[in-house]
């Protein structure tokens, strides 16, 4: 390139080196490979530079700092002031420098070689002119960011290096303007060469620096465009530099062994500190703020982007660790400047402000070094160590603000008061403490030791006392206490009347007092009066806290009491002056226990307390009783001189009363706090009680009020009184008949008691009975007709240990005690609890032998409800006799085992044990629900079960684990067959299901014999298969069974969740059924027997074999039901429902299924049965089901009247859902509550004719039924059915409430009707023979129903109670079913073959039910007998029964 300048050739050379000169580009056009290489290189360079620039520099305008760095690194001719001009406009930025040569040598700021490339973050093209060079760097040209391109159009060279950046977009203007604003004020501080900076961004900013010694000044000028309105600002800094050596192993810059650290402290124009934590750390250019209050400049090694320090470099760590030394070096500069001598501490870095982890050690290092230096200016005008300085703080004079303790009396130096308040916290950081209360006290004691304390004047003492009260007191509960009180007591704060000063030692202050008025005091007291004239209020307050008090009455009284409490010997004259002073001020002071504190004189001039002395009563009295004549040694009487020398202004009776009431001198015989007579009083009592009892009683009467007052004055007053009255009740005196007896056994024959006088009464020898002898009642003396009188009579009867003359006499006493119980409740209760006062079974017995009521099985305790039924309030309410709970069965079983453990059981014992176990089984459900304690737990290993032994033919007790026995099957068939083979529980088979819960509780329910026996059946001497094939089918019975199969299907499905395995039924009449039973699979244990029925499932048919030995009743009863259950493998507890399916009408069966939880089956699950085999119509079958009279009863089979009776009841049961809603409704609750109230207000009475209501019920409640209530019409008259259900339930509920209230042990267990579930009880399990069943073990019901039949009283019959309820009157007819009449026949007294029948049938005819009136009822016992006598008669063709008109 001929003719080109040297500069152009340099540019061309660079282009050739980068492969973008014209020659290379021509070759690239003809050489595709070369062209691709150049293009790839262009892409790599562009991406690399942009990547480096973006990753290194987080700020787009970082190029401004790079340009400043380059300008400072340039070389400038000597004498030239280095300057940099920056012009910023929208679209471009221009930089001019008066030199542009940059040397790449160590120690220069820039050393990375890539800083200038950061301009391409803001610029797309850069043009440069300098010393003949004129070129551009253009990111849009080939390798244009690293390859210069010559420019000929840039104009003449100005002699300055000029760089012009064309910005990428308009946004960069704001970015660059913001960056320049941030750095413009401090950027020149630590640059090495640049001395002036000018920035023109529309407003012109210029900055220049000058350095004079350690003070650097930055002058900045800001002017608007055109140079108008210029503003100049001066920034000053104290600049301290320190050169530090760098260790050899540090990663230092090449050739450098040391480096320089510069600290710049900002100052205002007055050269005072400017303290804020936002100062920057510089590496010649600003890096960041780390929280220092001074600027830090050091040659830190920085990251490539120059935006942070490399914290892991040893070079940088060495520089950081030297910052503290540089700061300490600046202290001398601070102390040399008058304006910085004190406030320089504001430059201290704070640990909460320096948050950069790299620089946090600097804070602790500076503080540590300063603590060891004399840097705190003291009040003595010299510097001292911080630890030896303190602030006077709160302990300064209120007058001049100077410390109350002069520095001459302290061991530390006070901090100068010239320090400003914002510096004080920094002094604390350096270890300067504030003067504490203990320091204050030490200073006061030092002043006192130098005898300068009181010389400082009263105002100073007032200030001192104010500080003591303000900072030296603490609240303890309600009082104020002095802190370090012993130190304060050593100070001479108390001024005597003679002007001398005294310390308030604790031994002295008890005698120091302020006397506000001129006072006279009793003699013999230690009192010293202080002068309070001129003392300030705070001074006096401190003295009061130290124990100095005002002289007042209470103080003098306390002194008197203190002297009398001490062992100091008192002069007689002093005692008198003390007593007179106490008496004169008795209304002002109130002091307890003077009787045991003040010392008096007795008749021998010996000192004694008032509680030890007697005197005659001061009041005038007519009594001739004198204590000094009655009481002998050790009684002591008061010295007469004390009583005679009263104060002049008082009355004699006042003076004497005060000795008694205040000083405790007794005027009546003295009692002790334990409620016993004193020694002298006891001697007097013993001398009179036998020989002169009347005089003794008169003495008690005279002094009783005073003695009661004595007892009340004791701290245990009620106890003392109780003990004394106990003593008096036991005090034995001679009675009129010469008998010596305790007062509690005696009588005072007053007028009201004369009519009850008997020869055995112990009368007191009192002639004037009209006087007030009421105190004797408290001593247990009987004076009138009261509970005490009858309790005493009862004790007399019981004490004789014989039978009362008559039961009426005993019951009258009980009745009187019941009505008068609240007169002496505690005494009556204690008497019955501790004595045998109840007569039963020919003997007197204690209360704990009884309960009020309890289960029917109870024998270990007697029931008062049976013995004395009319005294419930006395025994249960007042004496707290409880009912026995059901878990008493455990004690009954233990008692039974104790009586029969090793003996064979006879039949009464077996029956007793069966009843106990049955009762216990009924309670298991309450154990499992948590309503009853588990009484079975303690009997698990006890022999409580009756076991029948086959060989010995006897029954003995056995435990669960001690014997191998079987449980009978519910039918009893297998138990009877194997009775001679194996041991069985001796249970009634009919009660096995009832016993199931208890057997399961003891884990023996799995021992039932039918679970271990296999049978082989032979029918009419052929196999079952042949019997099925050859048997005679009973068409009539088969038709019945076929009609009942759907009902059996429902039960089977809901019990097993499986379809019934048969589609038809067949009844086969056979002659004989022979069965071979094998126990446990052992042929040797096989037994052959005959059976009356056998049921099998054969080819989808339920085949029922029946022999002729079964009568019409049993062919559809439990034997067949159990056989069906066995064939279908159902549960034995389903036998009741299966029997109902066989035995009852379809409506009855529906009722049984419903209460067993069996509902209608879904239509899709029902099977189709082969009903073609049923040759008879439904009506015929149903007629036979409802044949309720056989040839022995009142009507013929098939009677429609009897079917109607049963259907009427079934229609009522059918509507249990409606009944449940009614029971839970407000109407139902109201009616039931009414019935219960009526039942509790009535009682059962003996019945003679039993034809009329036996009570007159209470008036009806105001309840009206709605006669216009709409009635739904249907074939069964739905409305009447619902009403019948309601009336039936309400009638049963009324009878239940009546009998529960009247009969012992009558409970829900006796309610056997299905309707009991509506009262909240569980369904009854077992045969329903009546609505209620009751075993009258105590003959209560029997005596009421048959009062003339004495032979029945000990028979304890079992009652079957049926309820016939109506909303009409007593004469309204009622119906009875065949089964009911059959039960009535078999349970009839007149039909029974036994002389004393075990079962009796009773009807309760209840009327006026459910119509808002109070019910009437008639008890109809033994209905068959009543029919024969005409009291009951058949009144219609339907066999309806009613009470005859003549007896209604």
List descriptors.
35% helix; 14-stranded mixed sheet; alpha+beta; 1448 residues; disordered C terminus; flat; 4-stranded mixed sheet
Task: Please tell me about this protein's structure.
Residues 104-114, 1175-1215, 1245-1277 and 1444-1448 have low confidence and may be disordered. The protein is of the alpha+beta class and 1448 residues long. Helix 11 packs across helix 14 (537-545) and helix 30 (907-928) packs across helix 32. The radius of gyration is 62 Å and the shape is flat. Helices cover 35% and strands 17% of the residues.
Q: In terms of quaternary structure, what is this?
A: single chain
State the helix count. 45
* Major beta sheet, strand line-up: 5-4-3-6-2-1-7-8-9-10-11-14-12-13
What helical percentage do the residues reach? 25-40%
Based on CA inertia axes, which overall geometry fits? Answer: flat
- What's the N-to-C terminus distance? 156 Å
Strand content: 15-25%
Gyration radius over CA: 62 Å
According to DSSP, the number of beta strands is: 52
Find the structural class using helix and strand composition.
Answer: alpha+beta
Low-confidence stretches: 104-114, 1175-1215, 1245-1277, 1444-1448
């Amino acid at each position: 390139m001929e003719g080109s300048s040297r500069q152009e050739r340099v540019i061309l050379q660079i282009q050739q080196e980068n492969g973008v000169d014209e020659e290379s580009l021509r070759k690239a056009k003809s050489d595709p490979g070369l062209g691709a290489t150049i293009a790839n290189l262009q892409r790599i360079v562009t991406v690399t530079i942009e990547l480096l620039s973006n990753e290194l520099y987080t700020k787009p305008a970082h190029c401004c700092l790079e340009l400043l760095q380059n300008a400072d690194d340039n070389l400038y001719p000597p004498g030239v002031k280095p300057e940099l001009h920056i012009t910023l406009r929208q679209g471009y930025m221009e930089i001019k420098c008066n030199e542009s040569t940059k040397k790449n040598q160590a120690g220069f700021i820039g050393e990375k070689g890539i800083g200038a490339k950061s301009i391409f973050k803001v610029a797309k093209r850069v043009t440069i002119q300098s010393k003949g060079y004129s070129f551009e760097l253009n990111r849009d040209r080939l390798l244009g960011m690293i390859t210069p391109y010559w420019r000929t159009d840039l104009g003449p060279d100005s002699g300055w290096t000029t760089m012009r950046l064309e910005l990428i977009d308009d946004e960069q203007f704001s970015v660059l303007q913001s960056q320049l604003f941030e750095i413009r004020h401090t950027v020149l501080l630590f640059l090495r060469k640049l001395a002036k900076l000018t920035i023109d961004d529309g407003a012109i900013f210029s900055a220049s620096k000058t350095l004079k010694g350690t003070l650097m000044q930055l002058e900045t000028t800001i002017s608007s465009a055109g140079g108008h309105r210029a503003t100049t600002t001066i920034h000053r800094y104290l600049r301290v530099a320190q050169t530090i050596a760098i260790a050899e192993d540090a990663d230092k810059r090449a050739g450098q062994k040391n480096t320089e650290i510069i600290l710049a402290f900002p100052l205002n124009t007055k050269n005072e500190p400017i303290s804020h934590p936002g100062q920057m750390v510089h590496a010649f250019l600003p890096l960041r703020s780390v929280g220092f209050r001074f600027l830090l400049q050091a040659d830190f090694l920085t990251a490539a982007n120059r935006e942070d320090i490399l914290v892991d470099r040893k070079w940088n760590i060495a520089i950081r660790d030297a910052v503290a030394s540089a700061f300490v070096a600046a202290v001398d500069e601070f102390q040399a400047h008058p304006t910085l001598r004190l406030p320089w501490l504001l430059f201290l870095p704070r640990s909460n402000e320096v948050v950069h982890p790299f620089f946090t050690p600097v804070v602790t290092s500076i503080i540590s070094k300063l603590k060891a230096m004399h840097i705190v200016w003291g009040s003595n005008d010299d510097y001292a160590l911080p630890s030896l300085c303190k602030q006077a703080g709160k302990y300064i004079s209120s007058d001049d603000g100077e410390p109350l303790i002069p520095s001459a009396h302290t061991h530390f130096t006070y901090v100068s008061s010239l320090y400003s308040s914002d510096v004080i916290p920094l002094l604390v950081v350096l270890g300067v403490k504030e003067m504490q209360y203990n320091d204050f006290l030490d200073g006061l004691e030092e002043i006192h030791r130098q005898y300068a304390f009181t010389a400082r004047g009263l105002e100073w003492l007032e200030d001192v006392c104010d500080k003591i009260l303000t900072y030296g007191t603490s609240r303890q509960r309600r009082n104020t206490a002095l802190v370090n009180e012993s130190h304060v007591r050593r100070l001479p704060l108390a001024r005597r009347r003679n002007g001398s000063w005294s310390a308030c030692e604790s031994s002295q202050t008890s005698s120091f007092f302020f006397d506000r008025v001129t006072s006279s005091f009793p003699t013999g007291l230690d009192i010293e009066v202080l002068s309070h004239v001129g003392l300030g209020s705070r001074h006096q307050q401190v003295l009061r806290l130290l124990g100095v008090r005002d002289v007042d009455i209470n103080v003098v009284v306390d002194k008197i009491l203190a002297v009398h409490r001490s062992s100091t010997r008192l002069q007689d004259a002093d005692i008198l002056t003390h007593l007179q002073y106490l008496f004169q001020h008795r209304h002002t002071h109130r002091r307890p226990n003077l009787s045991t504190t003040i010392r008096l004189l007795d008749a021998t001039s010996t000192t004694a307390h008032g509680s030890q002395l007697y005197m005659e009563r001061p009041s005038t009295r007519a009594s001739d009783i004198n204590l000094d004549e009655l009481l002998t040694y050790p009684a002591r009487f008061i010295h007469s001189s004390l009583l005679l020398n009263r104060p002049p202004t008082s009355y004699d009776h006042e003076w004497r009363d005060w000795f008694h009431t205040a000083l405790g001198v007794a005027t009546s015989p003295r009692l002790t706090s334990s409620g016993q007579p004193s020694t002298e009083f006891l001697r007097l009592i013993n001398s009179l009680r036998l020989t002169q009892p009347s005089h003794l009683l008169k003495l008690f009467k005279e002094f009783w009020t005073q003695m009661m007052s004595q007892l009340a004055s004791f701290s245990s007053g009620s106890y003392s009184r109780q003990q004394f009255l106990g003593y008096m009740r036991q005090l034995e005196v001679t009675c009129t008949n010469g008998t010596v007896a305790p007062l509690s056994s005696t009588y005072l024959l007053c007028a009201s008691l004369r009519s009850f006088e008997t020869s055995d009464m112990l009368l007191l020898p009192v002639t004037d009975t009209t006087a007030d002898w009421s105190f004797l009642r408290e001593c247990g003396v009987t004076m009138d007709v009261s509970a005490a009188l009858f309790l005493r009579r009862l004790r007399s009867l019981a004490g004789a240990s014989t039978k009362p003359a008559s039961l009426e006499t005993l019951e009258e006493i009980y009745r009187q005690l019941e009505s008068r119980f609240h007169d002496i409740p505690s005494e009556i209760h204690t008497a019955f609890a501790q004595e045998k006062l109840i007569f039963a079974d020919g003997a007197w017995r204690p209360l704990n032998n009884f309960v009020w009521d309890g289960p029917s099985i109870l024998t270990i305790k007697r029931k008062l409800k049976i013995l004395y039924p009319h005294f419930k309030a006395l025994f249960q309410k007042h004496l707290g006799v409880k009912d026995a709970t059901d878990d008493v069965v455990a004690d009954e079983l233990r008692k039974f085992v104790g009586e029969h453990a090793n003996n064979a059981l006879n039949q009464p014992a077996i029956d007793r044990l069966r009843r106990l176990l049955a009762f216990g089984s009924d309670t298991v459900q309450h154990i499992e629900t948590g309503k009853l304690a588990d009484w079975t737990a303690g009997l698990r290993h006890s022999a409580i079960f009756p076991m029948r032994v086959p060989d010995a033919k006897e029954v003995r007790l056995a435990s669960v684990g001690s014997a191998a026995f079987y449980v009978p099957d519910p039918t009893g068939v297998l138990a009877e067959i194997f009775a001679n083979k194996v041991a069985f529980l001796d249970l009634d088979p009919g009660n096995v299901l009832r016993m199931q819960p208890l057997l399961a509780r003891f884990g023996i329910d799995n021992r039932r014999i039918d679970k271990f026996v296999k049978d082989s059946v032979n029918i009419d001497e052929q196999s079952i298969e042949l019997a099925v094939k050859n048997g005679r089918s009973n068409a009539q019975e088969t038709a019945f069974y076929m009609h009942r199969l759907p009902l059996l299907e429902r039960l089977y499905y809901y019990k097993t969740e499986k379809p019934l395995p048969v589609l038809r039924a067949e009844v086969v009449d056979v002659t004989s059924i022979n069965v071979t039973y094998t126990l446990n699979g052992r042929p040797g244990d096989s037994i052959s027997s005959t059976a009356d029925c056998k049921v099998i499932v054969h080819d989808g048919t339920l085949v029922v074999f029946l022999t002729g030995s079964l009568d019409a009743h049993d062919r559809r009863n439990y034997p067949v039901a159990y056989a069906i259950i066995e064939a279908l493998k159902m549960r034995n507890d389903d036998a009741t429902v299966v029997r109902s399916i066989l035995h009852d009408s379809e409506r009855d069966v529906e009722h049984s299924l419903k209460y067993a939880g069996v509902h209608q089956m879904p239509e899709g699950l029902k099977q189709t049965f082969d009903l073609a085999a049923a040759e008879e119509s439904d009506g015929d079958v149903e007629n036979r089901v409802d044949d309720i009279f056989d040839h022995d009863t009142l009507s013929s089979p098939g009677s429609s009247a009897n079917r109607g009776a049963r259907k009427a009841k079934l229609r009522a049961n059918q509507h249990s859902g409606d009944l449940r809603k009614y029971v839970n409704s407000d109407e139902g609750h109201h009616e039931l509550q009414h019935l219960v109230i009526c039942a509790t207000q009535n009682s059962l009475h003996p019945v003679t004719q039993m034809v009329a209501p036996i009570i007159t019920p209470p008036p009806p409640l105001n309840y009206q039924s709605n006669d216009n209530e709409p009635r739904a019409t249907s074939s069964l008259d739905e409305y009447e059915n619902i009403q019948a259900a309601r009336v039936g339930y309400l009638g049963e509920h009324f009878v239940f409430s009546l009998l529960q209230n009247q009969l012992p042990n009558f409970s829900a267990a006796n309610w056997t009707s299905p309707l009991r579930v509506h009262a909240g009880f569980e369904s009854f399990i077992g045969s329903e023979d009546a609505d209620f069943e009751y075993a009258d073990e105590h003959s209560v019901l029997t005596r009421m129903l048959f009062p003339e039949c004495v032979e029945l009283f000990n028979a304890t019959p079992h009652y079957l109670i049926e309820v016939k309820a109506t909303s009409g009157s007593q004469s309204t007819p009622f119906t009875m079913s065949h089964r009911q009449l059959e039960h009535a026949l078999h349970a009839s007294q007149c039909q029974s073959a036994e002389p004393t029948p075990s079962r009796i049938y009773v009807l309760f005819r209840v009327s006026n039910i459910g119509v808002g009136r109070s019910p009437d009822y008639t008890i109809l016992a033994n209905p068959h007998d009543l029919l024969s006598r005409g009291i009951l008669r058949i009144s219609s063709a339907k066999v309806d029964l009613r009470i005859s008109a003549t007896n209604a």
